[in-house]
Design brief:
By secondary structure, the chain is of the alpha+beta class. It has one domain. It has a five-stranded antiparallel sheet. Helix 1 packs parallel to helix 2. The chain is globular, with a radius of gyration of 14 Å.
Length: 130
């Protein structure tokens, strides 16, 4: 029950913006270069694309926790990849940010979101839909 309350608090906190800092492809303004290498936008990602992996959880519970934690840090374009939908993934899930056409754009985004890491440094990966 406590875990549910903590998760709900993270989601609500993210929605109300405990932090005024935003990162990601649609991030805020200021001296930082937000949105470097804008993500490709469509309802379905391309067959093959680059993304930034924020965490690689091994269970649904950890996946939900990590996704909520990333969203609470106001990282934009957060989504979850699963091994049954994308390859190559070493773990059952990956909490990701963005869909990029090039590795360089994904690396730039990884640098942007590095301050918001939750499970080690964010890293880039080229994924392909199955």
């Amino acid at each position: 029950m406590l875990a549910v309350a903590v998760l709900l608090g993270l989601v609500i906190g993210g929605a109300f913006g405990f932090s005024n800092r935003q990162a990601g492809a649609n991030g805020g303004t200021g001296s930082q270069t937000h949105g470097v290498g804008q993500t490709t936008s469509s309802t379905e990602p391309p067959q093959t694309f680059w993304t930034v992996i924020m965490s690689s959880p091994s269970s649904e519970e950890k996946r939900d926790r990590d996704e909520a934690a990333v969203r609470a840090r106001n990282v934009t374009d957060v989504w979850v990849a699963s091994r049954d939908q994308y390859t190559p993934l070493a773990t059952p899930f990956a909490v990701c940010s963005g869909h990029f056409a090039t590795e360089e754009a994904a690396k730039a985004h990884a640098e942007e979101v590095r301050p918001f890491k939750i499970a080690g440094n964010p890293f880039t990966r080229q994924l392909t839909r199955l």
